[in-house]
Automatic annotation (TrEMBL):
<protein>
    <submittedName>
        <fullName>Amidohydrolase</fullName>
    </submittedName>
</protein>
<dbReference type="GO" id="GO:0016787">
    <property type="term" value="F:hydrolase activity"/>
</dbReference>
<dbReference type="InterPro" id="IPR006680">
    <property type="entry name" value="Amidohydro-rel"/>
</dbReference>
<feature type="domain" description="Amidohydrolase-related">
    <location>
        <begin position="3"/>
        <end position="248"/>
    </location>
</feature>
<dbReference type="Pfam" id="PF04909">
    <property type="entry name" value="Amidohydro_2"/>
</dbReference>
<dbReference type="InterPro" id="IPR032466">
    <property type="entry name" value="Metal_Hydrolase"/>
</dbReference>
<keyword id="KW-0378">Hydrolase</keyword>
Amino acid sequence: MIIDAHAHLSNTDYGDTSTYLKLLKEAGIDQGVAVPGAMLDVRKMTDYITGRAKPEKPIPDNKYVENAFKANSNIHGFICINPHDKDVEQQLLKAKRAGFKGLKLSPMSHQFSFSSKGIAALASLCGEYGFPFYTHVVYSPGASTAKLVQLAKQNPKTNFIIGHMGFGPADQEALEAAKTMNNFFLETSTGNFLHIQESVKKAGSSKVIFGSEYPLSHPAIELEKIMKLEISDREREDVLSTNIKNLLSI
């Protein structure tokens, strides 16, 4: 089995559910984990990274993702919550009852610190609910890899997934955290081949999770990186399905 553990779905002509399902089938990928997309127009990602553009739609369309996983048994959903909202705990509980299986945060869209009260509440609840806590990191003191690692240490019952292998092409802080902490995992989408290879070697195949970053990247292209890794069949199975299956209890 192959599971894409990170895709963005949105009601757009470049990131809709039907296109994603078509690409999964063509790539031979069995299931996908979806989060809301289109808060940032990924076709202009460099403008957001450099600060030349601001998020146009910072409100995540969680309903679109909910509709996707309720209509398609091979899609699982993570809810995206703005930690600045006053009702984050209620939002997460409502998501659990609706069938979501994890939490996705977007520091580029919502510009927060991992040390904020809202984040602390969400991280703790994720441990209670069995929700993985997925986020990427940015070049910002409040939303850095170091801050995320600190949050993970404070919440040992919560499983944390750092998107895109961390910050930059070879995030050693993220790799060291995955190597030494039971609750810290690396997600591969848009990561480079050598760093993924080294991460499996140093942290172990049980700490690396395959993702595609659809629609910014193509599921088949991201999958090919995993298929080219010089690892055993068992290790490849860990990366492609076993790890995310265990985290989501599917």
